[in-house]
Design brief:
Distance between the termini of chain A: 52 Å
Shape of chain B: elongated
CATH superfamily of the largest domain in chain A: NADH-ubiquinone oxidoreductase 51kDa subunit
Strand content of chain A: 5-15%
Largest sheet of chain B: 4 strands, mixed
Number of domains of chain B: 2
CATH class of the largest domain in chain A: Alpha Beta
Strand order of the largest sheet of chain B: 2-1-3-4
Order of helices and strands of chain A: HHHHEHHEHEHEHHEEHEEHEHHHHH
Number of helices of chain A: 17
Order of helices and strands of chain B: HHHHEHHEEEH
Radius of gyration of chain A: 22 Å
CATH architecture of the largest domain in chain B: 3-Layer(aba) Sandwich
CATH topology of the largest domain in chain A: Rossmann fold
Oligomer: heterodimer
Radius of gyration of chain B: 17 Å
Largest sheet of chain A: 5 strands, mixed
CATH architecture of the largest domain in chain A: 3-Layer(aba) Sandwich
Number of strands of chain A: 9
Helix content of chain B: 40-55%
Largest interface: A-B, 55 and 47 residues
Chain lengths: 437, 172
């Protein structure tokens, strides 16, 4: 099957699309349209709302509604932030997007900025993406020289400039409120709203933050209209395309753009070259490390928000991490929790203390020292994670809870067999179990 | 003290910023690029530039993965040990580097060339197992391609500029 490509339509194997190439594909027409006909800020937000554009960074919040939460009479200056700090295991779509077509993202930031009357745009980017940061800095300069950024954009009275802000590198910086603290040179602790950042964000001013992939959708929605965007989805409940990052036990790991609602089976068998080594699909994490294990019974599920929600899972970032029959999911979960425990910012207790406990229990299970009572303990600790300030800790609970829900037999086999039924697994990073062998 | 050609642009950048402390990570990275790591005097120098206290900088310098408060080698090798790299052989790769260089994670070779560190997901799951060398990604790696990479780095160090020139970074 081939599908229309939108976000990666100008992707080339070896280089970025230039400004000319982006323009030849209709680039910056949306901006000219919005500024030329004097479309109001609210109209832009309403268009995105009608297109059912939901945030692609994992939380799926309606983009138009978030813009509308910046009050008409809110103070100035206002800020628009592009979150390119993706750091969740399995997710690398923003890197691919920036390396494919940086001006699409730049135009998206300008349109989002216009919708909330922001005068300063910021791309917050992880240090591992230094090459993407350099591409953006260079192309922002190109856009400025072409009149798309600066004091009078395309001769209008709208002014915006964009800077690239490099992070020092921590997972928590992808969380909106923590990111705002990071931008202000403070320790990046998350803050529990209210006030929401759209009311009081960066330097206490209204701040709109969107994921890079979300922003890249804006020029296309403005240019082609909400109905066109909704029809890109294969399923009626979805809208648009999605950048899926496929990794793990497949033949061709990578990032592909596919319509929302494309079946999981098709993604793996057609677009990722099938299971590696002729393996059998056992499970996947359908949307990154903060989503639950999706068992083989759902191999034909349409990959969209509603379908995954209906089975108690989430589309998340669309990062599909694939496991075959030889993968031990207890060991895999143990590895994920090591990530979350190490990257916990430590600001609030349930996450800082709970994750190492969970890691300890999973390590015991994996080493064959687990006991029956460890399973209810894992459930209890996972629920405690929901009491944290930010959404990252509940996200960390998702793989643990789904492991117990869908692979209880596999967990139990570790206890009754006194060891891993899959044989020796790669050594897990992090400390050994407390009091363990 | 920083040389003028690094110090002067920093001072100008800080003076131009509406909120100088938003530049704190940039300033720390610039000092680290020059000195190799953020020593106590470097922290005080950065604090002076930003009109912040060394303590305010300390809680950032000890928080971020890519700020080094202790000396590191000319090449900092970060081995990703998160899920996909772990599944695809990160353990073997890390062990291999350790054996080749004769160091354990967290250590630096006696010649000051290499530091070996574990790191969380670096966003190259499509090229697992992957590592960073001074921020630049390499993958998927085998022990053989890794050996070639280490040899290349050694050769480059032998005829390249002196350490302190700052880490090479970049490329997708």
């Amino acid at each position: 099957m081939t599908y229309p490509r939108v976000l990666l339509q100008n992707r080339r194997p070896d280089r970025i699309a230039t400004l000319e190439e982006y323009r030849a594909s209709g680039g910056y027409e949306a901006l000219a349209m919005v500024l030329g006909v004097g479309r109001t800020r609210r109209e832009v937000a309403a268009t995105l709302e009608a297109a059912v554009l939901l945030g692609r960074g994992g939380a799926a919040f309606p983009t138009g509604r978030k813009m509308m939460s910046v009050a008409e009479d809110a103070p100035f200056p206002r800020y628009v932030i592009c979150n390119a700090d993706e750091m969740e295991p399995g997710t690398f779509k923003d890197r691919v997007l920036i390396h494919a077509d940086p001006h699409m993202l730049i135009e998206g930031i300008i349109l989002a900025g216009y919708a909330v009357a922001a005068t300063q745009g910021i791309v917050f980017i992880r240090p591992e993406y230094e090459s993407a940061a350099r591409i953006l800095e260079r192309e922002i300069g190109v856009a400025r020289a072409a009149g798309y950024l600066g004091p009078r954009i395309l001769g209008s009275d709208y002014a915006l400039d964009i800077v690239v802000h490099r992070s020092g590198g921590r997972y928590i910086c992808g969380e909106v409120t923590a990111q705002i603290n990071a931008l202000m040179g403070r320790r990046p602790n998350p803050q529990q709203p209210p006030p929401y950042p759209t009311e009081k964000g960066l330097w206490g001013r209204p701040t709109l933050t969107n994921n890079a992939e979300t922003l890249a959708c804006l020029p296309h929605i403005v240019r082609h209209g909400p109905e066109w965007f909704k029809k890109l989805s294969l399923t009626p409940g979805g809208a648009g395309t999605k950048l899926f990052c496929i990794s793990g036990r497949v033949n061709r790991p990578g990032c592909v753009e596919l319509p929302m609602g494309v079946p999981l089976r098709e993604i793996i068998e057609t677009h990722a070259g099938g299971m590696a080594g002729g393996g059998r699909f056992k499970a996947c994490l359908p949307g990154g490390a903060s989503t639950g294990f999706l068992p083989a019974a759902h191999y034909d599920i349409p990959m969209d928000l509603d379908s995954l929600r209906a089975v108690g899972n989430r589309l998340g970032t669309g990062a599909i991490m694939v496991f075959d029959q030889d993968c031990c999911l207890v060991a895999a979960t143990r590895n994920l929790i090591e990530f979350f425990a190490r990257e916990s910012c430590g600001w609030c207790t349930p996450c800082r203390e709970g994750l190492p406990y969970i890691r300890d229990l999973l390590t015991r299970l994996e080493n064959g020292q687990g006991r029956g009572e460890d399973i209810p303990a894992l459930r209890r600790l996972s629920r405690h994670l929901w009491k944290s300030y930010c959404a990252f800790a509940p996200g960390a609970a998702a793989p643990v809870e789904s492991l117990l829900d869908h692979f209880a037999d596999e967990v139990q086999a570790h206890i009754t067999g006194g060891g891993c039924p899959f044989g020796p697994q790669p050594r897990t990073p992090g400390p050994p179990a407390a009091g363990g062998a | 003290m920083l040389p003028e050609h690094i110090r002067e642009p920093l001072i100008q950048k800080i003076a131009a910023a509406e909120h100088p402390r938003e530049l704190v990570v940039d300033v720390l990275l610039a000092l680290q690029g020059h000195y190799g790591h953020l020593s106590d005097p470097a922290m005080e120098e950065a604090a002076g530039l930003l009109a912040m206290t060394p303590l305010e900088l300390e809680e950032l310098a000890t928080f971020y993965t890519f700020l080094y408060r202790e000396p590191v080698g000319r090449y900092v090798i970060h081995v990703c040990d998160s899920l996909i790299c772990w599944m695809e052989g990160a353990e073997r790769l890390g062990d291999h580097i350790g054996r080749r260089l004769g160091i354990a994670p967290g250590q630096t070779t006696a010649d000051g060339l290499f530091t070996l560190l574990p790191v969380c997901c670096i966003g190259y799951c499509d090229r697992a197992p992957a590592i960073l060398v001074n921020g630049r990604a390499h993958g998927p790696l085998t022990p053989e391609s890794l050996d070639r990479l280490l040899e290349d780095l050694r050769a480059k160090a032998a005829d390249g500029p002196a350490p302190g020139a700052g880490p090479e970074r970049g490329t997708p």
